[in-house]
């Protein structure tokens, strides 16, 4: 089975980060960045921009690729796919106002109050790197959607 290619985008500045509460589907009930599947004929960056518009109603102006993480699920992953490759982008400037969609409910959080306990458990390993302006790559092995078996996240130049 081929790996699934996904995008994830986070808006942040020196004081706060924009996250979305996932309202349905894979990751429901968790705060997360915005993103999703890459459709046929789309580049990864085009998919990231499309998903941001669909899920939060905003268009990034200064989007930068920050990292790639391969998620491996022992049990199952997205749509029965055990391997998910996520391309992670950040931005601080955007057009529009964040708005709730059928998929996500956006909210701003102070950088000192990121709700890690209500996020994917791997976010604590890479999100601080992204907020610090670093690029990174890695692999995260999940037993299921709650428990990490092991992980390797490293800064890259």
Secondary structure elements and their pairing?
Layout: E1 4-12, E2 16-22, E3 31-32, H1 44-56, E4 59-60, E5 64-73, E6 83-91, E7 94-95, E8 104-110, H2 123-131, E9 135-142, E10 148-156
Parallel strand pairs: 1-6, 5-9
Antiparallel strand pairs: 1-2, 2-3, 2-8, 4-7, 5-6, 9-10
Features:
mainly beta; 2 helices; two-stranded antiparallel ribbon; 157 residues; 10 strands; 8-stranded mixed beta sheet
Walk me through what this model shows:
The protein has 157 residues and is mainly β. It has helices spanning 44-56, 123-131; strands spanning 4-12, 16-22, 31-32, 59-60, 64-73, 83-91, 94-95, 104-110, 135-142, 148-156. The termini are far apart. Helix content is 14%, strand content 41%. It is globular, with a radius of gyration of 14 Å. The mean pLDDT is 93. The chain contains 2 helices and 10 strands; from the N terminus they run βββαβββββαββ. Strands 1, 2, 3, 5, 6, 8, 9 and 10 form an 8-stranded mixed beta sheet that branches.
- Main beta sheet, described? 8 strands, mixed
* Structural class label: mainly beta
Low-confidence stretches: none
Radius of gyration in whole Å, from Cα?
14 Å
